[in-house]
Amino acid sequence: MSSQPPIGQYGSAIRAAPGVPVIRNVNWGGLRTLYIKEVRRFFKVHLQTIWAPAITTLLFLIVFTVATGAKRPVEVGGAVLPFADFIAPGLIISQGMMGPAFANASFSLLVGKIQGTIVDYLQPPLSTGELLAALVGGAMTRAFIVGAICWLAMALYPGVHVFPRHPGAILWFGFLGAMFLSLLGVLTSIWAEKFDHAAAVTNFVIAPLSLLSGTFYSVDRLAPAFRAFSHANPFFYIISGFRYGFVGTADSPVLVGSLVIFAIDVALAALCYALLRRGWKLKS
């Protein structure tokens, strides 16, 4: 007996009954497709999205260790570190990972709104959580690729020691930092209406917080007012925890920093989820 349905019944064989969802749990196929799309998008222009931030990060290292003659050691948490060993981890996470993560996430929905292709994100059978996960996952993938390139280059750079002492801390704070900027990028992409808006967030929020986060100096040497500002900066906890993974010491309690950034990531994820679900500035 043939296993094929009778002629005229093909539609009923592939369509579910009215009101019964075809995809009942996670749409893994759609989630994977959108994630691959996001990854392929930045790989198509890899000179700009991967190699450019990696080279810029290495130039920061060269300028601060060679061109300026900054050779003095830095005291962190009671330990004295060579200056190059001190700034290298901060450059990897702040310039090499968090910057690219924000740039990638802040571009996706924004370019869709500007070009009128936002329906490519909203129309597929993806839940709000699946859409957010794919956007954040693509941005974090770019962050870890650029970060790995920077780490390998610094490992080969003379006079710089970036051998991991606590790999778990490196991965954890790298994950938290990349997610933080990815979610902030998605939030910016939802809010922004033109590229100038995204650039304003980069220039007036991301860049100042990154430069004033203790990447190039120890916050213990600052005046009390500036030290208090640094401790209110979430970038400080990310960089301090990430540096701890390489040098074994930190400017702040690692557990406290981990909890602070984790709480911020959860809050940002909830906000992005609510705005995407509502379709704020996405659905006309």
TrEMBL record:
- Pfam families linked: ABC2_membrane
Its primary localisation, in coarse terms, equals: membrane
Q: Which InterPro entries match?
A: ABC-2_transport_permease (IPR052522), ABC2_TM (IPR013525), ABC2_TM_bact-type (IPR047817), ABC_2_transport (IPR000412)
Q: Which GO terms describe its molecular function?
A: ABC-type transporter activity
Compartments (UniProt record): Cell inner membrane; Membrane
GO cellular component terms, alphabetically, are:
ATP-binding cassette (ABC) transporter complex
Q: Which residues form the signal peptide?
A: none
Q: What protein family is recorded?
A: Belongs to the ABC-2 integral membrane protein family.
The protein depicted here goes by the name: Transport permease protein
Q: Give the originating organism.
A: Sphingomonas aerophila
